[in-house]
Amino acid sequence: MPQPAAPPADRVPDAPPAPRPPVPSPASVGAAPTAPAASEFAPLLRAVRGQGLLDRRVGWYARGIGVNLLALAAVVTGVALAGGSWWVLLLAPPLALLSARAAFFGHDAGHAQITGNRRAGRIVQLVHADLLLGMSRAWWNDKHNRHHANPNHVDKDPDVAADVLVFTQRQAVGRTGPRGWLTRHQAWLFFPLTTLEGIALKVYGFRAVFTGGTGRRRDRERLVEAVLLTAHVAGYTALLFASMPPVRALLFALLHQMVLGLHLGMAFAPNHKGMEMPDEEHGRDWGHLRRQVLTSRNIRGGPVTDWLLGGLNYQIEHHLFPSMPRPHLRLARPLVRAHCRDLGLPYTETGLLDSYRQALGHLHEVGEPLRDSGAVRGTV
Q: Among 75, 121, 270, 271, who pairs with 315 as Cys (CB 3.0-4.6 Å)?
């Protein structure tokens, strides 16, 4: 494993967190000096490449994927054997935990972190996303690539588009009825809503595959995905309903999908919520370095945190170097922190619980105008 020569500890102090106003303004990053975008990122790229941190780690991924597949097979076998007892429900959370690992491996394959061979990476992602999770690879890649190109951008990042949740007070304006109620209480409802995330990913993916665009290549890709998604549903349904009574099977599926959604939501929530949100004016002249660093938040922790969050706790490094293998992200961290320090650029890193506090605090602030207007009208 390549080991970077980390700068001395006294040269890598914790940088102050990036400002997080509820409605971003151009002044919110006024302390960061202006510099040509290319000259800011190029020295860091050279340092990272020189340390070999962009080299693939195929063996590391092969071991991790193999262990996860064996663990999944063991849990599935346990479900088949214990389906006649209510104790089988205890296997739903471990299955969700291992399903989340499959999602992380599918994510890494989509970024070409596992291998530079496009065909091999595509197969790995198809197996993990479509077959094991029932989630469309093509739909996810399109959405996720747009997020990486413009993270937290109010008008360009699909992850902060106004939907069930809203992320700016501008998006909250005019929301009434059930949507207005959701916005007023979205901070309290965030984690309960994430229990639906696993199901939502499946629904969006199925809809994209079975109602997507046409074209010879697109039709072939859709056919492959349609077969794998159908196989996932058939296999999952057969496993549950063949090994346990219908009511128990439905409860098992519900518990499995809810825990999976909650786990994925807890991994995604700390990354960008409450960080800078550029738009067509604010952040228009940011280069790659600022665009990724100012909108992302790292989570401190050790091997357990790395495993639970699938390496996404190194969100800044992942956004700067999307194809960097997961085990190298922690090695790149001191280089990125030192580089941001030298530029006077905020590098935001916090603990896991505090990251949730910051993210939920931002969602709460976004809904404040609607709560105020509701109080004036005498409504909740």
A: 271
